């Protein structure tokens, strides 16, 4: 069940785009991309609230905001999100995750989902089969190690200076037709 629509590996005028292979998991398909490459899928997950206008038409739409280069503030809501995605994939759905570039935050989600599907070293797998840029910062690696027990990996960026304090970070925002509320209310998806 390949993704339809424009492929993520096409050139534009300004720069070369990565090719991000979709991953077949059981009857489902897990894909990740830059927001500009988002195409049709059954479930779309946008990891940046500033990119929520980039949803393609159709399918379920979920916004789960993670600040760029960072890990989720709330492990429990993240786990609930990943659990919902696992259910969707088990149900044969195509799930597409996107952020600005499809690497750090998207890589984090993809690695967590792969872990749930029994992949022993999801970061290594992603860097070999999805994109070498997957999972960008130490904080993201540490989050995966702590919450999913994945083997540690070198961060892509060794030193990232965060420009904003965590206090100014927005709360989790989920805009799907099936869910509204604050971060603390997250109860998983309906799939
Ligand atoms: Zn890439």
Q: Your description of this structure?
A:
The chain has a five-stranded mixed sheet with strand order 1-2-5-3-4. It has one domain: Alpha-Beta Complex (Protein-Tyrosine Phosphatase, Chain A), CATH 3.90.190.10. It starts with 22 loop residues before the first strand and ends in a 43-residue tail after the last helix. It is 25% helix and 13% strand. The protein has 191 residues and is of the alpha/beta class. The chain has four helices and five strands; from the N terminus they run ββββαβααα. A hairpin with a 2-residue loop joins β1 and β2. The structure holds zinc ion (ZN). Zinc ion (ZN) is lined by residues 18, 20, 102-103, 131, 133. Zinc ion binds at residues 18, 20, 102-103, 131, 133.
Instruction: Bin the helical content.
Output: 25-40%
- Tell me, briefly, the overall form: globular
- CATH superfamily, by name, is Protein tyrosine phosphatase superfamily
Number of strands: 5
What would a concise description of this structure say?
The protein is an alpha/beta fold and 191 residues long. It has four helices and five strands; from the N terminus they run E-E-E-E-H-E-H-H-H.
Set down the secondary structure blueprint:
Elements: E1 23-25, E2 28-34, E3 43-46, E4 60-63, H1 75-90, E5 94-99, H2 104-116, H3 122-129, H4 138-148
Helix pairs in contact: 1-2, 2-4
Describe the structure using short key phrases:
alpha/beta; 191 residues; 25% helix; 5 strands; 5-stranded mixed beta sheet; binds zinc ion; disordered C terminus; Protein-Tyrosine Phosphatase, Chain A
């Amino acid at each position: 069940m390949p993704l339809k629509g424009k492929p993520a590996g096409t050139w534009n005028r300004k720069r070369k785009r990565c090719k991000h292979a979709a991953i077949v998991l059981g009857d489902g398909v897990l894909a990740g991309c830059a927001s500009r490459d988002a195409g049709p899928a059954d479930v779309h997950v946008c990891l940046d609230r500033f990119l929520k206008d980039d949803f393609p038409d159709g399918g379920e739409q979920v916004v789960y905001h993670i600040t760029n280069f960072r890990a989720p503030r709330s492990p429990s809501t993240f786990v609930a999100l990943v659990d919902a995605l696992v259910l969707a994939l088990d149900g044969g759905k195509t799930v597409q995750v996107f952020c600005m570039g499809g690497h750090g935050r998207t890589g984090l989600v993809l690695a967590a989902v792969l872990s749930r599907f029994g992949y022993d070293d999801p970061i290594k797998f992603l860097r070999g089969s999805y994109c070498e840029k997957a999972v960008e910062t130490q904080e993201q690696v540490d989050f995966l190690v702590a919450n999913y027990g994945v083997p540690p990996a070198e961060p892509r960026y060794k030193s990232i200076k965060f420009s904003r304090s965590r206090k100014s970070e927005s709360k989790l925002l989920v805009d799907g037709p099936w869910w509204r509320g604050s971060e603390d209310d997250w109860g998983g998806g309906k799939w």
